[in-house]
Design a protein that fits this description.
- With 131 residues, the chain is mostly helical.
- It has one domain (3-130).
- The chain has helices spanning 8-12, 20-34, 36-50, 56-70, 86-99, 105-118.
- The longest helix has 15 residues, at 20-34.
Amino acid sequence: MAKNDLTSKDLQRYQGNYNENAFWTKLKKVAKRLGSKTVYYALVLFYTLADEHTPAKYKAIIAGALGYLILPLDIMPDFLPFAGMADDWAALLAAVAYVTSAITPETKAKARLKLLEWFPSAQDSDLGDLA
């Protein structure tokens, strides 16, 4: 599943699967496998979702992408080596592309601080376009 294949409606379809506790449980469980960049994108989306100034239409897209991440069985099951997290990455990347105007320097700073708990040596160069 490529970023370009996902529409905002596709992402919104998974918003019912999102809840904060499940997000933290899943992220902690798969953080090392996802890698610092993917975890950072998930955290940026999480903090953007929590921001009271984020428009509702963007919150639905973010909740959908994070809900997709939480799903234990998705298009490519997470237990598959290498490929198992690719569809999750595509959903996160698509959501970031749709909501980029709502991502603030403050949400990125919160995400960066949290990321450093799991990846203490993470550098801005590891974080992609959102650094």
